[in-house]
Amino acid sequence: MTWVLDLENVSVRRGEKNILDDVSWQIAEGERWVILGRNGAGKTTLLQIASARMHPTKGVAKILDTQLGKVDVFELRPRIGLASAALADRIPASEVVSDVVLTAAYAVTGRWRESYEDLDVSRATDLLAAFGVDHLADRRFGTLSEGERKRVQIARALMTDPELLLLDEPAAGLDLGGREELVGALSELAAYPQSPVLVLVTHHVEEIPPGFTHVMLMRDGGVHTAGPIAEVLTDEHLSEAFGLPLEVSRTGDRWSARAAQVEPARSGGHAD
Ligand SMILES: Nc1ncnc2c1ncn2[C@@H]1O[C@H](COP(=O)(O)OP(=O)(O)OP(=O)(O)O)[C@@H](O)[C@H]1O
């Protein structure tokens, strides 16, 4: 079997600590993954490896049939779409929205003197339309709301028609309506057979878009549990991964979680 992503015993060491610790993880064609774990669990670091922005200290990372360390990452990166807060911070506030998407074709932020094909321009327009933000094409990025920015960033990440799309907390900072619209848009993307393999990092099971197939729970830099969504998202696994008693429930194709209700202690009888 050929994997889209194949990590074997990958560790990343910073100072005295393994911030990723012996992670083995395989993603097959067509899968849609969610990564959950508490703050500092290593989710963003894992995406840094998966997007060829960081090399492991130990272990082997194979991405799209290439191996990190044996491939020119500048050729590999356009095959991987990434949307993250760190990348968004690099987009100049004065950049026109259509250029925010278009410049991804050259893997740059900030339009300068590159020339673009008509095909690139129409792809950027189509992607903005697909995420419902084409009416903002002429606005400056810095004037958009948080929800609008998130959609533009995902459109940008899709510009190079990547085979793997990594989204780091795309719903962070969105209000309820914005979150629900984004979940709907990602669910549509997940359902589309031509879509890239998707990996979504989130803090909330409520943000898992219908159609996502697999979950990885991370804890302390390592994989706590990984596999098909219904097998992994149990009270027991989530409670262990987050280190507190949690109850998970499923309503239709959506998930939710909350602190487990503690049974009140039974009274031992009447005290006179
Ligand atoms: N360059 C670095 N040097 C030292 N420690 C680092 C470095 N980069 C990250 N870390 C630490 O590695 C751990 C994992 O960080 P990471 O950002 O991957 O976690 P995360 O799961 O994405 O967290 P969050 O949910 O808070 O975004 C954290 O404890 C972080 O402080």
UniProtKB/TrEMBL annotation:
Superkingdom field: Bacteria
Q: Does the keyword Nucleotide-binding apply?
A: yes
Check the record and name the SUPFAM superfamilies matching this protein. Answer: P-loop containing nucleoside triphosphate hydrolases
**InterPro entries per the UniProt record, alphabetical:** AAA+_ATPase, ABC_transporter-like_ATP-bd, ABC_transpr_CbiO/EcfA_su, P-loop_NTPase
Record-linked Gene3D superfamilies? P-loop containing nucleotide triphosphate hydrolases (3.40.50.300)
An example of a Gene Ontology cellular component annotation for this protein is: membrane
Q: Does the keyword Nucleotide-binding apply?
A: yes
Provide a Gene Ontology MF annotation, just one: ATP hydrolysis activity
Please state every residue range assigned to the domain named ABC transporter. 5-245
Q: Which UniProt keywords apply?
A: ATP-binding, Nucleotide-binding, Transport
Query: Mind telling me what this protein is named?
Result: ABC-type molybdenum transport system, ATPase component/photorepair protein PhrA
Species annotation:
Sanguibacter keddieii (strain ATCC 51767 / DSM 10542 / NCFB 3025 / ST-74)
